[in-house]
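Practice problem: predict the structure.
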Amino acid sequence: MLINEKMSLAERIDLLIRLGEYLQEDTEAYHAAVRLAGLHNGWFTKANVKKALSEIQTAFLEPSVLKTAPQHYPQLEAELVPKSIGLVLAGNIPAVGFHDILCVFLAGHKALIKPSSKDKYLIHFLLQSLYNFDERAKQYLEIVPVLKGMDAVIATGSNNSALYFEQYFSKYQHIIRKNRNAVAILDGTETDEELSRLGKDIFNYFGLGCRSVSKLYLPQGYDRNRLMKALDEFADVMEHNKYKNNYDYNRSIYLLNQVPHLTNDCMMLLENEQLVSRIATLHYEYYTDEETLKNKLLQQQEATQCISTKMNLPWIDTVDLGHTQSPSLWDYADNVDTLDFLLNLASKN
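Answer:
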């Protein structure tokens, strides 16, 4: 039998709430996980790891959030047929794959988990914590060296790896995620405080997340120098060797190739239509009217994870400046409802 000692939905929710409470405690296991994550992956600074775990606690594991799950998804209350779900996790920012694990657990399936080699310690820590609270969680959540014997797959990677996943997992029902980036739209009326919040969207996790702003849309005539001055606030990113090395390398490339760009103490601003930008580089593009902007953004929806702005744009979903890296439990990668996908699987024998 797939799961011998089943847990009710209420028990699964209570266990996740317990994990959220545990993440707020000052434990040796927590500090060890933070330390090991940073030693293994130079991008996972102590501050970034703690921020990521804090976001998981406040956005995903709060009782007020988890207990609303049955309201969002009434199917959770039903006795559905559990499936084995293969998870190929990303590792671009700390514990980014935990959302998929949580969704599988909430749905009552068994997760066969292939962590990213870049982020194995935090995933191990979170799972071991659940095991410690209730051993039955081991039947729902298992780290495996190779994915096999699953009924469906959720895999996250680059555009190149997604091509491989599409072929390799073609016989399974699946969600395959590719590269995405966030963009921000300014209208020129932003205050210094709002530009500071934009800086968080750009610099949190060194801009490595799929929700990190890599491209700006600016109104024609926008004062770029004011923007660059405001973003100087984040110059402490240059104290990180990996970031500084990327800044120095990319700037030398722009200078050698005579690519026009602006620079401040922590990043380069480059006029470019591409959504994806190099580390320590932010692309921008001017717009002249909202209709043109609308057409551009709608054409790029498949490559855009989220849009950060203070503007009221009723024709597309947006988030407030400074909130791209704070998704709610119900904000799904690639705008594909993971829990709905899993619950629909459960209804199929």
